[in-house]
Design brief:
The complex is a heterodimer of chains A (about 260) and B (about 180). Helices cover about 70% and strands about 0% of the residues of chain A. Chain A is built from eight helices and no strands. In chain A, helix 2 packs across helix 3, helix 5 crosses helix 6 and helix 7 packs antiparallel against helix 8. With about 180 residues, chain B is mainly alpha-helical. Chain B is built from three helices and no strands. Classes of the chains: A mainly alpha (about 260), B mainly alpha (about 180).
Chain lengths: ~260, ~180
């Protein structure tokens, strides 16, 4: 039945992975997704440059917003996770947070309506930077040997346990961390978009039905879509927060001496 | 399965390499611009603000401390002044008391002295008067008696004895 509807209305039902890959605008370099990335970069640069073109001790409104974001990341993420050392990483974390939050919010922005982070390439880039950063910092701070020892060997367990624990710790610290970081962000955005598609497109599909009862029911689908859109805003910000917090946490472990 | 059926579908877990490149470059650009031109200034501003606020707090604290100290000082001074005033009042009261008693004593002494002097002079006066009267009354009585009787009592000794007797009688009568 739904197949008939799709044929009738031209609506892509059910939503599929194909919906995440719209046709290229001009070759593989200029797509909706790459343009959104440039848009995000442009918005953030302009926002911060304008907000901070003439900073004052008593801030203007724009300056205050910019500083609030910075303050949030600086105090609630960097310092919380890493202590005083974290403050020098706060600028990068702020950029990271803003970039992820904004690109995530594209998922509920009218006209864009999909987050670039629902293409795993972008989370991979960000997670890779985090990965390289915490490895590099760990090795530079403690030396390769000590860093590996700290990362792999849990002190105070009977030695035969290390046959089991070292591979687990290795998997945990050097593979799972970056992979989950990237996949978590990607999956949240991917699923969020899928949910919105299901309710929105589903609502239209129901509306296009011949059955008056099904048409009436479509209202619930639209209500749900609206509800989910708000939920997506929350998820967008939360995922940005989680990503940055975990990055800070990983770098913090690299900096700290204990296990 | 699904992918194979659609043919053109892209596996969502396989990154598009062009996007990796674009993402890296774009994010690097973003990081470069913001971390070079904006965020260091933000940190500086943050510190400046913290300094300003903490400095302000410190100044306020210092002012508060100074005010407290002054208040303490004033209180101490006030208390000192109060005790001093009380002291002065007590002294004055004591002085007044002593002056009063002194004056009273003096007055009493004076009055006593005056009274004593009065009494003495009175006694002297009385003595004199008594003496004079005694001589005069004797003469008068004799004169009167001789005039009444008309005869002059030639006998000096008798006359004296008579007068003495008379006066003694008179005195004893007066004393009674």
């Amino acid at each position: 039945m739904s197949g008939q509807l799709v044929a009738a209305e031209g609506l892509p039902w059910p939503p599929s992975v194909g919906d995440f890959y719209p046709p290229d605008l001009a070759g593989p370099w200029v797509t909706k997704f790459t343009l959104m990335i440039w848009l995000a970069v442009g918005i953030l640069i302009i926002f911060f440059m304008v907000a901070y073109r003439n900073p004052k001790l008593v801030p203007s409104k724009g300056q205050w917003y910019a500083e609030s974001i910075y303050g949030l990341v600086r105090d609630n993420i960097a310092r919380e996770q890493m202590g005083k050392d974290g403050i020098r990483f706060a600028p990068y974390f702020t950029v990271l947070f803003c970039f992820i939050a904004l690109t995530n919010l594209f998922g509920v922005t009218p006209g864009l309506q999909i987050s670039p982070n629902s293409h795993i390439a972008f989370p991979i880039v960000l997670a890779a930077i985090t990965y390289v950063m915490y490895l590099y910092i760990g090795v530079r701070k403690q030396g390769l040997g000590r860093y590996l020892k700290q990362s792999l060997i849990i002190p105070g367990v009977p030695w035969p346990m290390h046959f089991l624990l070292i591979p687990i710790e290795f998997l945990q610290n050097f593979i799972n961390r970056p992979v989950t970081l990237a996949v978590r962000l990607f999956a949240n955005m991917f699923a969020g978009h899928l949910i919105l598609l299901v309710f929105t497109v589903g609502g239209f599909v129901m509306l296009a039905s011949d059955n008056i009862f099904i048409q009436a029911t479509s209202i619930f689908a639209f209500l749900m879509a609206i509800l989910m859109a708000f939920f997506e805003v929350l998820v967008a910000l939360l995922q940005a927060y989680v990503f940055v917090t975990l990055t800070a946490n990983y770098i913090g472990t690299s900096l700290s001496d204990g296990h | 399965m699904y992918l194979a059926a659609e043919g053109v579908e892209h596996h969502p877990l396989v990154p598009i390499w062009q996007e990796l490149v674009v993402g890296s470059i774009a994010f690097a650009l973003l990081c470069f611009v913001l971390m070079k031109f904006v965020l260091p200034r933000m940190e500086t501003m943050y510190q400046a603000r913290v300094d300003a606020i903490e400095g302000g707090l410190k100044r306020a604290e210092a002012a508060q401390a100074e005010a407290n100290q002054l208040l303490e000082q004033y209180r101490a001074q006030l208390a000192e002044v109060r005790t001093e005033a009380a002291q002065i009042r007590d002294d004055a009261r004591a002085d007044a008391e002593s002056i009063r008693t002194e004056i009273l004593a003096k007055a009493r002494e004076e009055s006593d002295r005056i009274i004593a002097a009065g009494r003495e002079s009175l006694a002297v006066e009385r003595q004199t008067i008594v003496r004079e009267l005694r001589a005069e009354v004797g003469g008068l009585a004799v004169d009167l008696a001789s005039r009444i009787v008309g005869e002059s009592l030639a006998d000096e000794a008798r006359r004296k004895g008579t007068v003495e007797r008379f006066l003694t009688d008179l005195e004893s009568a007066g004393a009674r």
